[in-house]
């Protein structure tokens, strides 16, 4: 008895790269959850998405380095393959409208070739530590940075694993920018809410913000009394390597008129930057 | 009185628990309203984990029906896992709704949908975390009215002391009627307090208020009688039946969660009720008569549901979906409409019938033919006559041959073990059936690349069924028969290696049996199990038979009873059953005669196609069978690829079926 063959799906004619956020309560969305939500949003928005062929056709969406569950993000990236051409600005608007508030599509550009992953090698994270005074954080940062390696343990699917939290850290500093306070959980607590800026290279096994926090505990006994709040502010290529690099505006301005982006300030290039496409920003 | 969100406190705990997204809410289709703008406020609960509860149709329907009322607020709450429960207790965070994270204790009514009895301990956790006294008698005007619904509410006696009221049957109209009563009582300044409100509910004759009924017992432990303890409430409480499902096309705005759930699909109930008459099936007995949704409404609901939700799967639900009078047109119409759109259609709950393979072929035109499921329920023709599941061995073989011949590779067969009058031979016959299926299937498929999975669970006698008098089988007997079956399946290694075997141990079924046919004295057992840490009893990894059996030993001894008395004891014709004062419409004499027919291995037809056999429901409930065919076709609402957005003022036309 001959088996029924799966339908062939329409070919890809365009790829659009998006930057999206995980804000507020939706920072608790896991990557799997987000992927499912995005696929449904694509359907609700009637986007001409391309599907993989086979008995289980999947929408052709690819992701790079998703932030851990519970971590907020201003800079998550995905690439969507389409079977009909579409203005990236319309795609951004329709997709954003179909996603719940908090999962916001803030930029979309047409991909011009090369992999999205080739444009990302590091993340800028902001760590808010309620109940930790700035004075307590400073020596901890110094102790951490002065170490050659800081070994921390993490539970993985393969069991307890020891990794070096120090190696991939390109930068760790106390944030002195007052504007950082607006994202703190309780504005009144800003005096005792140290805010750290952290640039970590993407390595394998990955070093995540909670590994660096564990490193601060190991290296300097820093133990936040309540769970810290972490936000990924940017991803990109490190324009200037090295410890203590001064913030340099080698990246691209985000184009929303708000001055240099945090990515630029941290020395990260914009993965959707104009060298290979035109950014459309909300 | 304003109510503040517990979210700021909860947020501090979420990084510390598993799958925090399940507590965050924000589903597509969720509704939040300002507290002050509403008069009657409901918290609705499905007493299991979010991933199980959020797709529940009953809760979604009531949520939407209630929220469509401008002055009514309905929010949802689910069972929190033990990791969060512990943190909530440590940090003083109460049971909350996921919609606006309001404390459940602040609502007027707390409605809990019990699809199964295994949610009772989770229910106790929720009311305790909400700050509501566990014993209904200790509640004051400041506490919500706790109302049980769902199929388990047809015998709410084991939880009678923990609930204020129970509603039997369909909820769409019942919640609105209850809302009206609460609204009026509040507007009048809450005259007579909580008791007066409960009395007004009881006087509707369709809301059961356990506190207004006393149970007297005979010296041997059996019930002597259940009688009202005041003159102004009815002797019997009647179930609700929603007629004309086309007038209630819910859910219109399905809830689409961010978290993964057990059913990732848009589900439309294509009819309610079933008169196939399977004697073990409580759902079929208590949801009579059959009321079909018309093909037109089904088509509109599916289109709207897919557009609104973005789901890529549609489930056509009912107790026996292929029995819809226009199922062929429904399936081919939907298959036409969604051809090439990567939307899959599924038809769960199908009988053993080659016609169902034809339907399944229609629904799987895109080529994905992985598995089909059939439920012969019993292994021998004799036992199938006992349970009134009229399927012959030839029917089954013809059906699976058709399936394998049409490219389906996997067939799942469901059975029960421990049925009344069952012998070892009845169960071992399942192996022979499975061997025949593989043999015939290999011939039909032309290769050996086919499988059958035998899935078998312990039978639990349920209230309001002909088997409500039956002795539940001992777990040791069930386990022994399951083992015999395993050996019999593997007795032929060539065939056996194409047969998967999945079974459930007998012990959890025994506890389900205790809770299903228990009376008010079983409440002590539930309370003790909960106090000893019982949670999520529907989950194998959380269920503890030892805890339940131990608590039953201790708590029932005070009444001179034990677990066996409630489960493996056969009841007599004249025994007063704990749920006799709760009227499902089924005539008790008819149930008894059907029980006698079962023992005599006499089958009974379906009243949709044969004359009425007087089960009693239609005259007692003033209802009637509502089936097609209407002769209509699925409207050509849209051609693939050109669909636009559904207008928001889209209305449904009631169909005169």
TrEMBL record, chain A:
Residue span of region Disordered: 243-282
Family matches, as Pfam families: DUF2344
Residue span(s) of domain DUF2344: 15-209
InterPro entries attached to this UniProt entry: DUF2344 (IPR018768)
Protein name, entry field: Radical SAM protein
From TrEMBL, chain B:
SMART domains for the chain: Elp3
Protein name per UniProt: B12-binding domain-containing radical SAM protein
Domain of life: Bacteria
NCBIfam families noted in UniProt: rSAM_fuse_unch
Domain Radical SAM core: 260-502
Stored Pfam families: Radical_SAM (PF04055), Radical_SAM_N2 (PF19864)
Single GO term (MF): catalytic activity
Family matches, as PANTHER family: RADICAL SAM DOMAIN PROTEIN, SLL1084 PROTEIN
InterPro entries (UniProt xref): CHP03960_rSAM, Elp3/MiaA/NifB-like_rSAM, Radical_SAM_N2, rSAM, rSAM_horseshoe, rSAM_sf
């Amino acid at each position: 008895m001959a088996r029924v063959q799966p339908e062939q799906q329409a070919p890809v004619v365009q790829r659009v790269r998006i930057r999206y956020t995980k804000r507020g309560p939706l920072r608790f969305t896991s990557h799997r959850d987000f992927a499912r939500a995005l696929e449904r949003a694509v359907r609700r928005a009637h986007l001409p998405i391309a599907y993989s062929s086979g008995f289980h056709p999947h929408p052709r969406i690819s992701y790079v380095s998703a932030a851990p569950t519970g971590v907020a993000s201003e800079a998550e990236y995905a690439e969507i393959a389409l079977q009909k051409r579409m203005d990236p600005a319309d795609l951004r608007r329709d997709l954003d409208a179909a996603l719940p508030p908090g999962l916001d599509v803030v930029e979309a550009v047409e991909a011009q070739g090369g992999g999205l992953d080739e444009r990302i090698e590091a993340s800028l994270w902001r760590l808010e530590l309620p109940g930790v005074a700035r004075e307590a954080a400073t020596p901890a940062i110094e102790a951490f940075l002065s170490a050659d390696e800081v070994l921390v343990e993490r539970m993985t699917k393969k069991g307890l694993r020891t990794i070096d939290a120090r190696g991939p850290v390109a930068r760790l500093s106390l944030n002195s920018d007052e504007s950082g306070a607006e994202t703190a959980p309780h504005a009144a607590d800003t005096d005792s809410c140290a805010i750290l800026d952290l640039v970590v290279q993407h390595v394998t096994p990955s070093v995540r913000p909670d590994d660096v926090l564990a490193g601060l505990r190991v290296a300097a006994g820093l133990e936040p009394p309540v769970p810290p709040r972490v936000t990924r502010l940017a991803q990109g290529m490190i324009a200037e390597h090295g410890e203590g690099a001064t913030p340099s505006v080698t990246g691209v301005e985000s184009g929303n008129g708000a001055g240099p982006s945090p990515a630029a300030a941290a020395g990260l290039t914009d993965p959707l930057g104009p060298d290979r496409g035109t950014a459309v920003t909300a | 009185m304003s109510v503040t969100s517990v979210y700021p406190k909860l947020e501090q705990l979420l990084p510390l628990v598993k799958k925090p997204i399940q507590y965050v809410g924000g589903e597509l289709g969720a509704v939040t309203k300002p507290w002050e703008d509403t008069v009657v406020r409901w918290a609705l609960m499905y007493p299991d984990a979010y991933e199980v509860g959020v797709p529940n149709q009953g809760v979604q329907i009531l949520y939407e029906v209630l929220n469509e009322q401008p002055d009514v607020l309905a929010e949802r709450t689910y069972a929190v896992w033990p990791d969060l429960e512990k943190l909530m207790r440590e940090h003083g965070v109460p049971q909350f709704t996921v919609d606006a994270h309001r404390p459940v204790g602040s609502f007027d009514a707390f409605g809990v949908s019990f699809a199964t009895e295994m949610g009772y301990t989770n229910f106790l956790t929720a009311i305790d975390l909400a700050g509501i006294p566990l014993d209904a008698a200790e509640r004051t005007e400041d506490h919500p009215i706790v109302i049980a619904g769902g199929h388990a509410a047809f015998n709410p006696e084991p939880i009678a002391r923990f609930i204020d009221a129970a509603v039997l049957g369909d909820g769409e109209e019942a919640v609105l009627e209850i809302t009206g009563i609460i609204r009026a009582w509040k507007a009048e300044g809450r005259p007579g307090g909580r008791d007066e409100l409960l009395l007004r509910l009881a006087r509707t004759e369709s809301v059961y208020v356990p506190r207004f009924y006393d149970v007297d017992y005979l010296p041997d432990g059996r019930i002597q009688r259940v009688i009202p303890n005041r003159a102004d409430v009815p002797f019997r409480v009647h179930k609700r039946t929603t007629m004309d499902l086309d007038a209630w096309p819910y859910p219109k705005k399905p809830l689409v969660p961010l978290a993964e759930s057990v059913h990732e699909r848009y589900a439309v109930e294509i009819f309610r009720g079933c008169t196939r008459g399977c004697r073990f099936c409580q759902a079929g007995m208590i949801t009579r008569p059959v009321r079909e949704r018309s093909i037109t409404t089904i088509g509109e609901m599916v289109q709207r549901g897919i557009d609104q939700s973005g789901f890529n799967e549609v489930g056509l639900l009912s107790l026996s979906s292929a029995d819809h009078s226009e199922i062929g047109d429904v399936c081919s119409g939907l298959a036409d409409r969604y051809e090439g759109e990567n939307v899959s259609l599924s038809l769960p709950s199908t009988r053993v019938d080659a016609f169902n393979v034809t339907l399944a072929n229609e629904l799987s035109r895109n080529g994905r033919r992985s598995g089909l499921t059939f439920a012969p329920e019993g292994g021998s023709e004799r036992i199938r006559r006992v349970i009134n599941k009229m399927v012959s061995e030839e029917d089954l073989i013809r059906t699976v041959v058709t399936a394998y011949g049409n490219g389906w590779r996997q067939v799942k067969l469901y059975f029960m073990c421990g049925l009344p009058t069952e012998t070892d031979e009845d169960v071992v016959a399942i192996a022979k059936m499975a061997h025949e299926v593989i043999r015939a299937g290999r011939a039909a498929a032309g290769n050996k690349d086919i499988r059958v999975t035998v899935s078998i669970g312990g039978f639990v006698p349920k209230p309001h069924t002909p088997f409500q008098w039956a002795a539940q089988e001992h777990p040791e007997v069930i386990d022994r028969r399951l083992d015999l079956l395993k050996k019999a399946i593997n007795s032929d290694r060539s065939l056996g290696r194409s047969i998967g075997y999945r079974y459930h141990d007998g012990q959890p079924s025994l506890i389900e049996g205790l809770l299903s046919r228990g009376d008010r004295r079983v409440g002590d057992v539930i309370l003790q199990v909960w106090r000893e840490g019982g949670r999520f009893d529907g989950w194998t990894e959380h269920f503890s038979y030892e805890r339940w059996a131990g608590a039953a030993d201790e708590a029932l001894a005070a009444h001179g009873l034990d677990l066996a008395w409630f489960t493996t004891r056969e009841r007599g014709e004249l025994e007063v059953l704990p749920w006799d004062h709760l009227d499902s419409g089924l005539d008790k004499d008819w149930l008894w005669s059907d029980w006698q027919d079962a023992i005599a291995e006499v089958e009974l037809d379906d009243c949709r196609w044969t004359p009425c056999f007087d089960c009693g429901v239609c005259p007692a409930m003033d209802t009637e069978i509502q089936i097609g065919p209407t002769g209509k076709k699925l409207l050509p609402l849209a051609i693939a690829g050109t669909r636009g957005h559904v207008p928001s003022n889209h209305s449904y036309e009631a169909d005169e079926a």
